[in-house]
Amino acid sequence: MNQEELENIIYAYGKDLYSFCCYITHSRLEAEDLYQDTFLKLYEIRENLHIETNPKSFIMSVALNLYRNYKRKSSLRQLKTGKRISMEDNLSDIPSNEPVIEEQIVLKEECKLLRSEVNKLPDKYKIPILLFYMEGLSLTEISQILKLPSGTVKTRIHRAKKNLKQKLEDSYYDK
Predict the structure, then answer these.
(1) What's the predicted TM-score (pTM) here?
(2) Are 89 and 27 in contact (CB under 8 A)?
(3) What's CA 145's distance to the chain center, in Å?
């Protein structure tokens, strides 16, 4: 893969990748780092890189692997130092394109509640949900990214949806 092809991939999938990075890291700063690290990794391996079938799925898997490595290293540092290393940001100010102010307010509150509940899910449920609904990847593509059988991915998505449904219903009944 040459530099021009890599630039085309960045142009085509950069926005989706950044959005995915924001959701899995919960931090704009960490998402920007992960986003840049992903394309740096792709640039490093560009000579051996041959993406014919699904480039979006491939770059998402690279980002996910880098995130897991970062998380693993962060956990080890946290154990050694006894301090939590994270820069939490509020993702509620992500711009939206809704037309009417009242609808914006309602949708923003609903999105905030949904994001909050999705963020509370364990990674084994959160990541398949994000890949399926946010990135629009198929079960097969997600199973390739996560290196899991597609039945396991389907089960995790189902359990995550069931958990989210229960949590959101509880939230609405509490009001």
Answers:
(1) 0.59
(2) yes
(3) 12
Q: Which amino acid is at 133?
A: Y
> Distance (Å, rounded) from C-alpha 12 to C-alpha 54?
12
pLDDT digits (tens, 9 = 90+) for 22-78: 888 888 888 899 999 998 888 888 777 777 778 888 888 889 889 988 888 877 777
Tokens representing 65 are 């692997």
Helix (H, G, I), strand (E, B) or coil at 22: helix
Buried b (16+ CB within 10 A) or exposed e, 115-153: bebbeebeeebbbbbbbbeebebebebbbbbbebeeeeb
Token duo for residue 141: 């593509």
Q: Which of 78, 84, 77, 66 is nearest to 20 (CA)?
A: 66
